[in-house]
Design goal:
The chain has 688 residues and is mainly alpha-helical. It is built from 30 helices and no strands.
């Protein structure tokens, strides 16, 4: 009777909800178990399901048993643990920040851990796994703290991702610089950064499992407080919940979970974003999943299914000898990039837009003075870049070289140095002009080819051609880069154009495309030349090393055309940058004009990438600085921005190849270090 009375007191919908939630959880457990069973039957060795069963029951051949116990089972266990840790970390971060885009990737936790471990490796320390995970935890936590401080909890769904993605670019640039400077000390770090669950024995899994359990227990103890935060800060304070300490503790525990996963398998991208996103629809139907105490384990199961499913799918589709070289993180990054783009299209950002530059009216004398100063600075830089390097020259040597009367040594030095200087100058000018055009057309001060993924698409096209056709010429590489940039730009602008080019949506879709292209470039490098990561890093860091005059010709031609069009169509640029209605009222075909300017910006970006590699943030900084100096009229902005871009990249290239000579750093790494703080400054400024 007591049981009957208790049951009747519970609403039927609640009973159904609990039953359904239990059924969903059981189905998830069954799915993970099936994926785990399939995963241990896949590999390069001829050890299938019958051999695995014999090994588990102790009746297998010793060689087969060794494969299963030393490789297959540890890999499966690592996939389970890493997926669960990342899924729970993402769920905790999203719950505590009330932000559906929060994850270890978007908060730069993985990038901070990557930099911390890179610094440790460069310093020559060989640490046990637990100590290295502690260092990764410190780096990841510091990065997450910076992102949360800059974006503000609850200050906008997309703003957090913008801050985290920008900081990720900057931290990754610094880490890649370390990899280029210390190739022997950091050997294997590039492959590790792609994320792989391959293991040699159970030692690493057994060491990281207690760390993950400790983080999970801590989050479960905080579960009631985290649930209260969903009511709002004021309501939570009214119920006696310490809001600030709860958030800080939850972020620390989530960082602990994610860095344990990083220490075990490297950064496995976007599992922390995708797993909670897949669980979220269930919370609308089953109230039990709306509670943190229930949603955390379910998100962990979903994360484990994502990681193991990616590994199983990869090995089922790709031949075993090829699949073994492809990190699991590349597959999850591609899936996560699609998730990010879809969510960017669907989510409405409630935060204010990034403010445009204030309307400034500058006199003609200010414009002429600024232009004259920049021309003088550029001439001085060109002279310094040609004369200074691993071998110092005099102006007389350059004159003799130009007249064909220089010695063999001087001729050799200048034949290699002059094309580098030209490539840096022209690439900087082209990227600055491309950024000016994109910002005018989209009326978005955060838009630039690198941020929007256009440069990433160009790099993918160029790397694809170079890896498949090593003897491809300059025009072929430029064409392949343009094809890749065109595809990327069509995706970015096509997806972001729905409802107008909303500022945050455009940039967020661009970050998603940039993430996907970076994963594909890494995949190409690993599959075609896995032992030559330095060559790939040199290309991706925006280096002018090894450039010749024929490599620069396509860029010079496109830049000349771009400048001519921008000067002739300067009035249209001014109109397009105002609003949607003014150009139409004055009889301008807005759609055709916008398409023409965007096509020109894509062509400029592609040829710049083909000539000098991936160089980011130039198209962001140069137009902003130009408008601050000479106002918003494009008749003045275009020449000043082009000069600033040339000065910025030429300076970065000169510093990168002289300050730490004979070692060199690419111009792209230097501009990323400059551009990341500026991007973050714009986000902070928009919160005022």
């Amino acid at each position: 009777m007591a049981v009957t009375a208790t049951t009747s007191a519970v609403p039927p919908s609640a009973v159904t909800s609990r039953t359904g939630a239990a059924a969903v959880a059981a189905a998830l457990v069954l799915l993970v178990a099936c994926l785990a069973a399939v995963d241990i039957t896949q590999g390069t060795a001829a050890v299938g399901a019958p051999e695995v069963w014999k090994a588990l029951t102790g009746r297998a051949d010793p060689a087969d048993a060794s494969v299963v116990v030393a490789s297959r089972l540890p890999r499966m266990a690592a996939g389970l643990l890493v997926g669960a840790l990342l899924g729970m970390a993402g769920a905790a971060l999203q719950a505590v920040s009330r932000n559906v885009l929060a994850s270890p990737d978007t908060l730069a936790v993985n990038a901070g851990s990557y930099l911390a471990l890179g610094l440790t490796t460069v310093c020559g320390f060989s640490l046990p796994l637990l100590l290295s995970s502690g260092i990764a935890f410190a780096g990841g936590l510091a990065a997450a703290a910076v992102v949360l401080a800059l974006s503000g909890l609850g200050a906008g769904t997309v703003r957090l991702v913008l801050a985290g993605s920008a900081l990720t670019l900057g931290l990754t640039a610094v880490t890649e610089g370390l990899l280029l400077l210390f190739p022997q000390e950091t050997e294997g770090i590039f492959q590790w950064n792609q994320g792989s669950i391959a293991q040699n024995g159970f030692d690493a899994v057994l060491q990281m499992a207690p760390v993950g359990i400790a983080g999970l227990v801590g989050l479960l103890l905080l579960a009631r407080r985290i649930d209260t935060l969903a009511l709002g800060d004021d309501a939570a304070r009214g119920l006696g919940v310490p809001v600030r300490s709860t958030r800080v503790t939850a972020v620390v525990l989530a960082a602990l979970l994610s860095t344990a996963a990083v220490a075990l398998a490297g950064p496995i991208g976007f599992v922390g974003l995708c797993a909670p996103a897949l669980v979220r629809p269930l919370t609308r139907r089953f109230r039990a999943f709306a509670r943190t105490r229930t949603s955390l384990p379910v998100a962990g199961l979903t994360g484990a299914a994502l990681v193991l499913g990616s590994d199983v799918l990869l090995r089922a589709v790709v031949p075993a000898d090829v699949a073994v070289a492809v990190p699991t993180g590349v597959v999850t990054s591609l899936v996560g990039a699609v998730f990010l783009i879809v969510m960017a299209i669907r989510i409405r950002d409630t935060a204010g837009a990034i403010p445009s530059d204030r309307l400034r009216i500058r006199s003609r004398s200010v414009f002429l003075t600024t232009t004259a100063v920049l021309v003088a600075v550029l001439i001085g830089l060109i002279i310094a870049a040609v004369l200074v390097g691993d071998s110092k020259l005099l102006l007389g040597d350059v004159v003799n070289w130009a007249q064909g009367r220089a010695g063999r040594t001087v001729t050799f030095v200048l034949d290699s140095r002059v094309p580098r200087v030209l490539a840096a100058l022209l690439a900087g000018a082209a990227l600055a002009l491309a950024g000016t055009l994109v910002q005018a057309v989209t009326r978005n001060p955060l838009a630039e080819p690198g941020v929007l993924g256009v440069s990433g698409g160009a790099a993918l096209g160029a790397v694809l051609l170079v890896t498949t056709v090593p003897l491809a010429g300059s025009w072929s590489v430029a064409g392949a880069a343009f094809a890749g940039a065109s595809v990327a730009s069509v995706l970015v602008f096509g997806l972001a154009a729905r409802g107008g080019f909303r500022q945050n949506r455009l940039v967020l879709v661009g970050f998603g495309i940039a993430t996907a292209t970076a994963a594909l470039v890494s995949l190409l490098i690993i599959l075609t030349d896995p032992f030559n990561a330095t060559k790939a890093l040199t290309w991706l860091s925006g280096s002018t090393y090894g450039r010749t005059l024929p490599d620069v010709v396509p860029l010079a031609a496109v830049l000349a055309v771009g400048l001519a069009v921008a000067v002739v169509r300067r009035t249209e640029l001014d109109l397009v940058s105002l609003d949607e209605d003014t150009p139409r009222l004055l009889g301008m075909n807005l759609g055709r004009g916008r398409l023409g300017f965007l096509t020109l910006s894509v062509l400029l970006s592609a040829t710049a990438v083909a000539a000098a590699g991936t160089i980011g943030f130039v198209g962001l900084v140069a137009p902003h600085a130009a408008r601050a100096l000479v106002g918003r009229q494009h008749a003045r902005v275009v020449p000043v921005a082009v000069l600033l871009g040339a000065v910025l990249v030429c300076t970065a290239d000169l510093v990168g190849r002289t300050v730490i000579a004979p070692a060199q750093l690419g111009a792209g790494l230097m501009t990323a270090v400059i551009g990341t703080p500026y991007f973050l400054y714009l986000l902070v400024r928009s919160r005022r």
